[in-house]
Amino acid sequence: MFDFWYNKMTKNVGSSFELGMSDTDSFLFKVTNPTAFWEHMQPYMDFSNYPHDHEDFNEANKAQLGFFKNELGGDKKCIHFVGLRPKCYSLNLVQTKTGEKSEKKVCKGLGRAAIRNRLQFKQYKECLRRGKIIRHEFASIRSKKHKVSTIIQKKKALSHFDCKRWLFDCGIHSVPYGSKIIKKFYNVCPFC
What is the pLDDT of residues 36-55, one digit of tens each? Predict the structure, then answer.
C-alpha cells in the first residue's frame, strides 16, 4: 500500500492529494485535479463495479490482485467525510445523476442494524467537533455452553479518541505518534 501510494499514485500526477484515511486495503483522499488523476490511475483500476452504461465500465481487471476499485461505484460522489479512528468513519454521498443523498457508515464492533438504523452522519460530525462520546444499545444472539440466548449490549459506538494518532487542536489533522512534527508544533496545527 505504501509503495503504491508513494511510487505510483502521487508521482507525476499533476495533482495534489489530501489523505483522509487509509486502511490495510483502501485509501480515502481528496484530489485537486480529478481529470489528471483518473487519466493517471486508469491502468491500476478495476471498474467492474461501475454501472454497465458508465463510460469507464470494464471487466478486464475484475477480481485481479493489485487493482483498486472505486467503492462508490462511479455513480456517487462524496461531499463530506468524517473519520474518527480506524474502521470508524462516515461518508455523506450524493448520486451524480439524480442528486439523491445517502450515507455510508462504518463502525466496527457495533451491530449492522444499529449502524443502519441509529447512527447518523451528524453524530459522527458532532463526535469529532465536540468530543462527544456516543453509546448505543443493541440486541445480539450469543451461545454459552450450547445454550442460546438473546442479550442486550450497550457499547461505545463513536469516540473521537484515536490511540494511534496525535490529534492537533483543530480536531481535524493528525500525525502518527513519534512524528517529529509533534515536538516542533505540539498542539498548534501546522496544516491549518
Answer: 888 888 888 899 998 888 88
C-alpha 60/C-alpha 43 separation (Å) is: 11
- Tens of pLDDT, residues 125-136: 999 888 889 998
Domain positions in the chain:
1-73, 75-161, 163-192
Helix H, strand E, coil C: the string for 44-75 is HECCCCCCCCCCCCCCCCCCCCCCECCCCCCC
**14-20-26-31 Cα dihedral, nearest 10 degrees:** -20
Whether the CB-CB separation of 192 and 173 falls below 8 Å is answered with yes
Q: How many residues does the chain have?
A: 192
- Whose CA is closest to 153, among 142, 168, 137, 141? 137
CA atoms within 13 A on the CB side of 8: 15
Q: Show Cβ contacts of residue 179 under 8 Å, excluding neighbours closer than 6 positions.
A: 166
